[in-house]
Structure formats: C-alpha cells, structure tokens
Specification:
The complex is a heterotrimer of chains A (about 350), B (about 325) and C (about 450).
Chain A lengths: L5 E3 L11 H23 L1 H25 L10 H11 L7 H14 L14 H12 L1 H4 L2 E2 L11 E2 L2 H10 L4 H6 L4 H6 L11 H13 L6 H20 L7 H6 L3 H8 L10 H21 L6 H18 L8 H4 L1 H13 L2
Helix pairs in contact in A: 1-2, 1-3, 1-10, 2-3, 2-4, 3-4, 3-5, 4-5, 5-15, 10-13, 11-13, 11-14, 14-15
Chain B lengths: L1 H27 L6 H9 L13 H10 L12 H12 L9 E5 L12 E3 L5 H7 L15 H5 L5 E3 L6 E3 L9 H5 L5 E5 L6 E4 L7 H7 L9 H5 L5 E4 L2 E4 L19 E4 L3 H42 L1
Antiparallel strand pairs in B: 1-5, 3-4, 6-9, 7-8
Helix pairs in contact in B: 2-3, 2-4
Chain C lengths: L28 E3 L5 E5 L9 E2 L6 E2 L4 E4 L8 E2 L4 E10 L5 E9 L22 H10 L12 H5 L9 E6 L8 H8 L1 H15 L3 E7 L3 H10 L6 E6 L8 H9 L14 E5 H12 L6 E8 L6 E6 L4 H7 L7 E6 L6 E3 L12 E6 H4 L12 H5 L6 H9 L3 H6 L10 H5 L6 H17 L1
Parallel strand pairs in C: 1-14, 9-10, 9-12, 10-11, 13-17
Antiparallel strand pairs in C: 2-8, 3-5, 4-7, 5-6, 7-8, 13-14, 15-16, 15-17
Classes of the chains: A mainly alpha (about 350), B alpha+beta (about 325), C alpha/beta (about 450).
Chain lengths: ~350, ~325, ~450
C-alpha cells in the first residue's frame, strides 16, 4: 500500500472551493474595472489614492493585530485590502495623503478592529471611515476633480450631478433646466461625471457585479432589491412632479448608488443572512437613500442609508429566518387539515 | 441671570425627584439577605470554578450558610485554611479534608505511542473522541489536543510539546475537577496530594490484553502483576489486565516502583535514593522469603527422609 | 437558485450542489472473488449487538446464522462465506471503534441448501404481511443507504399510525457513489417485486420511486417497466444534496414535513432504499440472508472505479486491489460517500451491511484548509436543509451550552454536512454540532 498515514477527520470530506481568501480575491478583481475607468477619467490620482488607502489599511490592521491585540496578523485574508479599496472608491482622487491616513485609521481601527476584527464589525468599515471623513473634512471631501479632463494631480474641481441638482433646486431652478447643464445619460453610464474615485461608472460596476454573481460570491438579492426600490420611489416622485424631482434613471446612474448596491451593501459581515433578510435590507437602503437625497440636506445618502441599515441587521436576522423543516405542521392549519384528509381518504 | 437660576432650580428639582424615586424603589424591592452569606463569600477564593459542585462561589456561600455541618461541602481551591475561616464565621465545626491534585494517567508520549493516522478535525479531544478511538493504536490514551488545558482556570496545566501529554503544575492545581470532567478519555483523575506531596499511581488506563496493549504503546500496563505481588498492603489490584493503586491503602513504601518493567508506576516528589532503598529492601525481603521457603522445603524433605528411614527401619 | 427548463421536484429549504463525480456510473457490477478471510462484526446496525451462537473451530456454511438478534431493535448476522470460525475478538470496524467480530477462514463456497441461488425472477408473493416481516427479520436486512437501521423495525408500524405511501429512495445524492444506480439498472424487475412485497407488508396502495435526474437511464427503465402499474410511480428529482435524506425526500415527493423529533410514519410515510428493497426481494423470495452487497470503489486517482458485489466482512484492501491498487497519492479513505461517510485509518476494516462505497481522496484534498473568523455570510443558514442556524449551534456547542442548543433544535440536524461544505471560513461547524448532539443524547440516556 502507499506510504504514509491516512488522514481521519469528521465528515464532510469535500469542501467548496469558495473560501474567504478566494472570495476576497474575487471582490478585488470585481473592483478592477471601476478602478480602470477611474484612471481613465481622473488620471494617476486614482491609482495614487487607491494604493495609499490599501497600504494604510493593511499596515494599520497588521499593527493593531500584532502590537495591540497581540495575536497573529489577519491581513492575509485580504479583507483589509478590500476595505482600503472601498475607502478609496468613496473619496475624491485629489484627497491629500494625511486625510486618507485618518480615514484608513478610522475605518480599520474603529470600524473593524475595535469590534474584534473580520466578522465582528456591525458597520461596514470603509463606510465608517468615509462618513467620518465627510463630516470632518467636508470641503476636501466634496471638491471633485473634473472628469475626463486631466492626467495631472492638481486638477480643477467640479461638482457632482447630484450636487448641481441639490444646489440648483435650492436656488429655485427646475429639474429640466438643471438637466441641460449636465452630461448625457451615456456619460453617466460610462462614468464621465464628477464624483468619488470609484463610483462614477455604472457600467464598470455592473461588470464587477456580473463577475461576482458568476463566481457566486454574492447573490442578486441586495443589489436588485435596492436598485428597484430606488427606481420605484424616485419614479413615483418624478411622475408626481417632474419639475421638482429628477427621473429614476438619473438617480440610479449618479452618485454612489451603484457602488453602494454592488460593493458596500453586499459586504457579508454587515448584511443579513437569509435571502429574505437581504431583500428587506436592500429595500431599506433604497428607501433611506431616496429620502435623504430628496428631502435631506446632503445631496447624497447612500453611505448613510447603508450604515443605518447595518444597524438593523441583527433585528432583520432574528425575524427573517429560514423556515425550519417540520415547523409547517405547527404554522399552517390548512397543511395539517390537508394531511389529515390525505391520510384518512386512503384508509 | 434668571436663565442661570432657572437651570439650577430645575436641575436640583430633578435631582431630588429622582433621588426620591430611587429611595422608594430601593425600599420597596429590598432583598433581605443573610449577612453571613456575604461574609463567607468574602473569604472564598471567588474564582467561580465550580469545583465544589455548586455553580459558583455565591451559590456555595448560600449552601454553606444553609447547611448544618460542613461534611458535604468543601472548597477545593481554598482548601482547609479557607474552610476553617468559613467555619469560624458560621460558628460550626470545621471538617478537615486531605488536599487533592489532578494527575495524568497516561504516559504514552510520542516516542512510545506511534501514530496510526492523522487527525484533521476540529482541534478538540471531545470531537476526536466521538469520531474514533484515537490517532494512535491505543484507544484509552491521551488524544493530546489539550481540552484540559483550555478548561483550566488556574493556569495549572500545559501541553508538553515533546511528549504530547498534559502536565499538571503542582503549585497551581486546586483540584477543582474541571479537567477531570472535560477529558473524554478520563485520563485525568483527582488523587490525594499525599504527605509532603508524595504520590504514587499507575499512569496507564489500557485495558487490552498485555500483548495487544504493548503493541499499541511501548509503556502500556500489560497487567503482568509484578507490582501486585510486590505489594504487601493489598493496595494494588489488577482488573482487565490493568494495575491500579488504591491511594487509601498505599503506604508509600515505594517497593513496587521498580518492579514495573516499563516504569509506569509514577512517583511524585520522591527522591531516587528512596526508591532504590525501597527496592533494595524489597529484594532483601524477597531473598529472605525465598531462603525461608528453601529452608522449609529442606526441612520438609529432611522430615520426609526421616519418616522414610523410620518406615524402612520398621 | 438555478432556474431550469425541465424543473424536477426537490425539497424546499437549503441544500447544496457539489460536483457529483459519478465516475463509476457506467461500470457494471462485478462479483468480487472470495476473500481468504472475512471479519464479520456482530454489530453492523443501529440497535443492540447480536448474540453470537457459534464457537471458534465451528464449520459454517454460506448463509448460516452467526449471531441472533438481541431484542427487537437488532439484527441477525449471517456468515457470508463457508469455512472455519477463527478467533472472536475486538476488531476495528468502519465506525472507528473496536467491536466484537467473528473471523472466518474461507474454505470453498458451500451454501445453505434453503437459499435459492438462481437468477430466475420470482414474482408471485405467497406470504402474508406477518410472514414477510419475519422473513426480513430472519434474513438480517437493514437499511443499506448508510444508517443501517433494521428494516423489520421500520415495517412494524406503531399502533395508531396510518401509512398511505411507501417511498423508495433511489436518489443516491452523495457524490461519487453509484452502487444504488447500478442496482437499479441491473435489477429493476427484482426491485419492483421488492416494492410490491414491502407494499403488501405495510398494506399501502401507493409507492413512489424517487430518482435524481442525473440517472436518466434508471428513470427510463423504471418508467418502461411500470407503464401498466397504477400503484407504483417513478419521479425524477433535481440533483440537489441532500435529496436522499429521508425527510427531504418526503418533502420533495409529497410536500409533507416530518415534525421535529418525529418519524416518517407520523406523516403516513415509510421510506426504504433501493438497495434495501433488493435485499428484501432476495430475503423473501429467494430465502437469501443479507450476506453480500454492492459497494462502489471510487476516487479521482483510482485506476478502475468499480462497483463490486462484495461478501459482508471482506477487508477493504481486497476491494482496493481489485480496483487497481491503492494510488500513491491517497491521503484519506472514506467508508461511504464524501458528505456523510466515515474516514477509516486502517485498510483491514471489514465491509459492513451499511457500507455503500469506498472513496479514496488524494492527499492534496485530504486535509482541511486554514480556519478563518466567521464572516457572517449566512451561507450555512441558506444551505441547511432543516432550516437551522448552524453557525450559532457551533458557538453554543463550543461553549458547552447544550441546553440552549437544544432549544434551537440542534437535535433536528441530520448531519448532512452542507453547512461545513459551504463555509468559506472552513469552520468545523458540523464537528461541533455533532458533539452537541452526542452530549445531549448521552445526558438523555443517563
């Protein structure tokens, strides 16, 4: 017989290929198209910010795990890289390095490691970092470089479509007037608009979504339910008063909706377990996003909406459970009666 | 100015109101507790290890206060010193108990016990024990994943990396029984700590036939009964080809130690010379016994011969 | 959520889709040559061990009884060969523990005269239901899908329970295994007679054979043969693990749910495996005790993945040699399927009544990978066919909080392994759930 001892372990003896490092790698690959578009739009600034954010996140996670928590470093699973990338995707490409450092420290230190590392954080770490930066450095965080115009690091700034809309409406303009100032929908779709690093190109993000669905890393439930909710709600408001509210397509293609729906809301750790729960979660994010966009003082509300819904995940989990096998007889009187009838009819 | 005054007044009023509510509630829901429970709890070690059989120190304190005598109740961690204090608080007689310690009843280290498979399940002895008889030939031996170490609250155990067996740190072990309950193979056992911490026990639990046991582990007890024969106090019994020492009958004479050909009779805190001395003593005794037997035999033969001669003569 | 055009029935909650790897599906069953020595454990079933009625040195015939059942939930053990009884000793069997077993040195192949060894199909059922059950009991027939529950116990329906459906489990949802598939292809007529026998014993009017749709040939054969049968139906089922779980099969075919802690009889159903049905046919019509079974020998590096007809008690190594030897890269040998089988450490382990396959896993797939933190992906919850929350049961069991785990229905777990299979963090979920179950059962029995 062959040399060596046999391995003995409890069943099952086969395992899916989709393990944590594989999933993290898959997510990183899915984010690459958006990054490429960003480089095309904003030039090297995109690469610079992304690499810095990844570097800071990984170094901070390593240091905290190693020197503060005194346990083996957990950076090899790739989750810190993703946090860094997502943080970078959510900031302008002309952000100074020290702000990125602060954002990374908040994202990893407060958003993730203070809860015990991967798997224990209630809020999406990248969003924690992003919102912290947005509230602490509103000017730097909302001055975006002009898209498609530059390959240099110091570019002129431009506003996002959502910003133009909000300011315009405040100034008393109507939506159709404001629409004339904006790029076409095709530009929105392919990402020729002002905005944060990774959020402009709906097309690139959809490529990522298709890849992740193909690899079975995520399911369709969160992105689809969230996008449909946003489309429906904005659609209703648009039909009611097209002069005050922009159409659903505009809302879907601008701002962080796509990025949020595909990469932020689908984070395993901070989203519900079951498909039913995921749909509730997606719908909740959609509603909150629309409410903040249309009635809040901020032009954009995806980050806030996701963070707020993150807080509801435990409660969603405790209600949206899988139906337990065998509980049917307790739940459904009709089922019980039907069974009774079937059993007696053959007697 | 009025703003300031209003603020001060409102806050003071709120404070008084809240204080009143707290006072009333505390009066209403006051729990009258025997003062002695608190006093007893204070002298207990408060490790909540559960070694006494109660869920925690508070429960033990309650049980002690309710009990009439201390015969059934003992805090193994605090030992006799703490129990004496408890007895003083309650004003009843203290009951002294011999201190115990956990011992490891397996000596099948890596070199003695060859692996027969590689275990690759969750790192837990309990899970391995429900899966199969173990990753070595011996179905009775230590599985070596340290469930006992994990469960120890007193840092009194560690896994020896060279042997793969747990080691009890004598000074830290409080005989709380946690590891004994945890071990799926029942290798850990509470043993009387013994006079001057001297102990002697058989470190094997293999109940297979001698030849099979030795195949599985080079230092397994084969039930050869040499120690049984050497013991003059009936302290050693052999069941299912496994020797066991009864600590109550054992006088620590140490005469059995060297009879074991695999040195599986473990001694603690006993200097080697003493064992040698005891062995010499045993050998002398055996010699004497043999001589006596021979003499008797000779005498018997002589007597027979005499008888024979006598009959011949007759 | 694979949407398919020809959607077949399946169970409702959870489940997974591992690669089915049915390497030996097209290999006909071949009888394995007689071994030199067999080792027959006296407990190969759920329940009490049988009582040995032979002694060392006795000469036994093939099919002669070696040990009689002790109590009702137990099973007779027969000699699978003819020869001389050797030592009766404790032997390591496929459960991983030592159990008493009878060794027999094989000499010739001298069968008991009462056994009909011909291939002729006996269709007429001339026994009463009571006689059928007692013949099955005498023949030592047990469930051959893996759990090895004595079949006569299943057929003795408790008072007050009414059975209206007999389900025949031809699902074989475990990857790699093809033993049941081959039996269905090669002995379909016998299986149908077996089903009729079981129906008569239970007094039911309706039987359904459930077969996964990756065995289209078997489905076709049964559809052909059962064209004129009103009472026996064939149903194709989606390839979806664990379709062959008793409770899942009932849900898939009849949309009934066995209540927690209950038996299939509670919802009017009895489930038998196709292998068992064939054994029932042989026991009742041919008077042949359960002394041989079909075993799949398979694995990615096995030279000739095969289906052997093996005498019970044959050492595993004999099967491996017949399948082209043990490949160099073998890291793990599993008795049963990859999802629920038991890894064995020793190649002399005997084939038992419940051994459906021997699977050789290469070294690079034999060990588990690194364990990460739980990322709360919820995949285990989505995969659990019983609708439990495996990740929480793991934590409870690890902390020893068995009471809480019981409230969360840990005892409903069917140990199918879907949760551990899908966990991206490689967490040993089922290991701990099984531990919790074992401890709870122990508490109950104390």
């Amino acid at each position: 017989m062959s040399a060596g001892l046999l391995t003995v372990s409890p069943s099952p003896h086969i395992h899916t290929d989709l393990t944590v490092p594989q999933i993290m790698r898959g997510v990183i690959i899915a984010m690459i198209p958006a990054l490429v578009f960003s480089v095309y739009n904003f030039g090297l600034g995109a690469v610079y910010v992304t690499l810095l954010a990844i570097l800071f996140c990984v170094v901070i996670e390593y240091s905290i795990a190693r020197y503060l928590l005194k346990r083996p470093a957990s950076i090899y699973d790739g989750s810190a890289v993703i946090t860094g990338m997502l943080l970078a995707f959510n900031v302008p490409t002309n952000l100074p390095w020290h702000i990125i450092l602060i954002g990374s420290a908040v994202a990893i230190g407060i958003g993730k490691m203070s809860f015990g590392g991967l798997g224990n954080n209630p809020f999406n770490p990248a969003l924690v970092g992003r919102v912290f930066l947005l509230l602490s450095f509103p000017v730097e965080m909302t001055s975006w470089p002009k898209a498609g115009a530059t390959w240099s690091l110091d570019a002129t700034t431009s506003a996002t479509p959502l910003g133009i809309l909000k300011d315009g409406l405040r100034a008393g303009d109507t939506v159709p007037e404001l629409m004339n100032q904006m790029p076409s929908y095709a530009d929105f779709f392919f990402g020729l608009q002002g905005g944060s690093l990774g959020e402009m190109s709906a097309f690139a993000i959809l490529l990522g979504l298709i890849y992740m669905l193909y690899r079975k890393i995520i399911t369709w439930h969160i992105p689809v339910s969230m996008l449909i909710t946003i489309a429906l709600m904005t659609g209703i408001f648009w039909l009611v008063d097209p002069t005050r509210f922009a159409n659903p397509l505009f809302h879907l293609l601008t701002g962080g909706v796509m990025l949020g729906a595909v990469f932020m809301a689908t984070d395993y750790v901070t989203s519900p377990f079951t498909h039913r729960g995921m749909i509730v979660f997606g719908v909740g994010i959609g509603v909150l996003t629309v409410v903040i966009r249309l009635f809040g003082s901020y032009p954009e509300g995806v980050s806030f909406a996701i963070l707020i819904m993150n807080a509801f995940v435990p409660i969603i989990n405790s209600y949206a459970k899988q139906p337990r096998y065998g509980s049917k007889s307790q739940r459904h009187k009709a089922y019980q009666e039907k069974l009774e009838k079937e059993l007696t009819s053959t007697k | 100015m009025t703003v300031l005054l209003n603020t001060v007044l409102i806050l003071t009023g709120l404070g008084i109101f809240a204080a009143a509510i707290i006072y009333l509630v505390s009066q209403k829901f006051q729990v009258v507790e025997d003062e002695r429970i608190g006093a007893v709890e204070n002298v207990l070690p408060n490790t909540n290890c559960g070694g006494c059989g109660q869920p925690g120190c508070k429960a033990f304190a309650k049980a002690v206060v309710d009990a009439e005598s201390l015969k059934e109740l003992h805090c193994p961690v605090g030992g006799n010193a703490v129990m004496k204090q408890v007895a003083e608080i309650l004003g009843i007689a203290a009951v002294e108990r011999d201190p115990y310690i956990a011992v490891v009843r397996c000596s099948g280290s890596f070199e003695h016990r060859k692996k027969t498979s590689i275990y690759d399940g969750a790192e837990s002895c309990k899970i391995a024990a429900t899966l199969y008889s173990g990753d070595t030939g011996c179905a009775y031996g230590c599985l070596g994943m340290g469930d006992c170490v994990d469960v120890c609250d007193f840092e009194a155990m560690y896994m020896d990396e060279k042997t793969g067996l747990p080691v009890v740190i004598e000074d830290n072990c409080t005989a709380c029984n946690a590891c004994v309950k945890e071990c799926p193979k029942n290798i850990l056992e509470l043993w009387p700590k013994g006079k001057k911490n001297k102990r002697i026990f058989v470190a094997c639990l293999n109940e297979e036939k001698g030849s099979t046991a030795r195949k599985e582990c080079a230092v397994a007890c084969s039930g050869c009964a040499k120690c049984f024969e050497a013991c003059r106090y009936d302290a050693i019994t052999i069941n299912n080809s496994l020797a066991a020492i009864d600590p109550e009958k054992c006088t620590l004479c140490l005469e059995c130690v060297e009879t074991c050909d695999v040195r599986n009779i473990i001694t603690a805190n006993v200097p080697d010379e003493k064992i040698k001395h005891a062995t010499d003593h045993r050998i002398r005794l055996e010699e004497r016994a043999r001589k006596k037997k021979e003499e008797e035999k000779l005498a018997a033969q002589a007597a027979q011969q005499q008888n024979g001669d006598a009959t011949k003569q007759a | 959520m694979a949407m398919r055009l020809n959607k077949h029935k399946t169970f409702k909650t959870g489940g997974i889709h591992p690669h089915d790897n049915k390497l030996s599906a097209q290999v006909a069953i071949t009888p394995l040559s007689l071994p030199k020595m067999v080792t027959i454990p006296i407990i190969q079933h759920i329940g009490a061990p049988a009582k040995i009625v032979v002694q060392r040195g006795d000469i036994v015939k093939t099919g002669q009884i070696l040990a009689t059942h002790e109590g009702f939930v137990s099973s007779n053990i027969h000699s699978s060969v003819s020869g001389r009884i050797g030592v009766i000793e404790e032997v390591m069997d496929s459960t991983g523990f030592k159990h008493t077993a009878v060794n027999i040195r094989v000499k010739g192949d001298d069968w008991e005269e009462a056994i009909d060894r011909t291939d002729t199909l006996v269709e007429e059922i001339k026994f009463s239901p009571k006689e059928i059950v007692s013949r099955i009991m005498e023949a030592g027939v047990v469930g051959m899908g893996g759990a090895a529950f004595p079949s006569h116990v299943k057929l003795s329906v408790p008072e007050g329970k009414h059975i209206d459906h007999l389900l025949i489990n031809g699902v074989e949802c475990e990857p790699y295994l093809t033993a049941d598939h081959r039996v269905m292809l090669e002995k379909p007529k016998e299986i149908i007679v077996g089903i009729k026998i079981l129906m008569k014993a239970l007094g039911v009017q309706k039987a359904i054979i459930g077969i996964e749709d990756n065995k289209a040939d078997a489905i076709e054969i049964f559809q052909q043969l059962l064209k004129n049968e009103k009472h026996i139906g064939v149903e194709a089922l989606e390839v979806h693990y664990p379709q062959g779980g008793e409770k899942q099969l009932i849900q898939a075919l009849l949309n009934r749910e066995v209540p927690s802690g209950g038996l299939p009889a509670d919802v009017g159903v009895i489930v038998h495996n196709v292998g068992t049905t064939y054994a029932v046919y042989e026991a009742v019509q041919k008077n042949k005790p359960l002394i041989e079974r079909v075993v799949t020998v398979t694995g990615k590096s096995v030279k000739q993945p095969s289906n052997f007809l093996v005498r019970i008690g044959t050492p595993v190594i004999d099967l491996l040699i017949a399948a082209g030897g043990v490949p160099e890269d073998t890291g793990k040998i599993v008795s049963g399927g990859p999802m629920m089988g038991k890894a064995i450490a020793d190649l002399d382990v005997p084939i038992a009544k419940g051994t459906s396959g021997i699977l050789l896993i290469p070294k690079d797939e034999a060990s588990r990978s690194e364990v990460y933190n739980c990322v709360h992906c919820g995949k285990c919850i989505e995969a659990c066919p019983m609708g439990l929350e495996p990740y929480r049961l793991l934590i409870m069991s690890k902390k020893g909080n068995n009471k809480r785990a019981k409230e969360e229905h840990i005892l409903d777990c069917i140990e199918c392994g879907s949760c551990s299979f899908v966990c991206p963090s490689n967490r040993p979920i089922l290991d701990y759930i099984r531990l919790g179950k074992t401890q709870l059962k122990k508490q109950k029995s104390v």
